[in-house]
Amino acid sequence: MADAPASPGQLIWLKLKRNRTAMFGLAVLVVLYISSIFAGYLAPAHYATQNREVSWHPPQLDDLHLFDAAGDFRGPFVYGTKRVHPAIAEYEVEPDVVVELDFFTRGDTWSFFGLFESDMHLFGWSDPKRPVFLFGSDLYGRDILSRVLYGSQISLSVGIIGILISMSLGMFLGGVAGYFGGRIDFVLMRFIEVILSIPGLYLILTLRQAFGQDLPSTQSYFMIIIVLAFVGWAANARVVRGMVLSIKENDYVTAAEALGVSRFNIIRNHILPNTWSFAIVTATLYVPYYILSEVALSFLGVGIQEPEASWGNMLKDAQNIRNLTDYPWVLVPGFFIFLATMAYNYLGDGLRDAADPRSKV
Question: Where are the domains of the chain?
């Protein structure tokens, strides 16, 4: 018995698996999003926990050891440090003091999307008075690793939620405009042209000033998503409209109309499914735009506000040239921004090639 022919989705996946660069991007994104979901558990401390007596502590990741001076295995540990001067962020190692990293420890309370709370963490330090900063600490002595993990929940989710809203609107309105044509098409296309003329960044800046500087971070978060999605759907709708103008001339659409299938069902079941490959590819290529937009707005001080953590507002410390030269670990969030953006671009390029019907399996 002959094997059933592969579906379009299966063919795309077969081609995608052969693209090592795209699969690397997919693996990186899976790790980033899993870390974001379980940030409270993976982070050794809460993003707002301060230890001001150890502000601007250098990263200790390169000082992590498994064996002591005698060659005996002790598990992961770092040597203690002490501040040279209370007014200067300069530290020296205390070789006689060992601070061990303990796994599955109790610490700051965290919430899993409001469903439940816990104080269990993947790892912590044995001496509460000697915190370990694998990625260093900031001006207030907050753990940068913990803030990066918590900040990923905001910076990465903005892209996913924003693209879901904009692609849904773009596909639906583009499909309606292309299928019905006439006055509906004319009105929708003129409306789309108006939307395309609105610069999203300036619109957010204007709304931010209109609502005042004391706007809570939660409201700023949703405002950024709504505005970016409102501006972003128009370009997708125009492309989908062009695709639908061609798809609606196919025989299966004509047959469905002759059988009395409603226009809504024709659009939903016969036309829009043929634009899914475009939607998937476009989504993966557009998500970095939403991530970088949130980063830019938070960096400018009009997005997520302190003490909430996002990759953008964490980079605000890099605006000071002295911080940048004396404490280069303030650029750690920039590395994760670069990593997420490149991973999405690699995956998007791979999906674009895999969705091309002219490419070979």
Answer: 11-15+148-354, 54-141
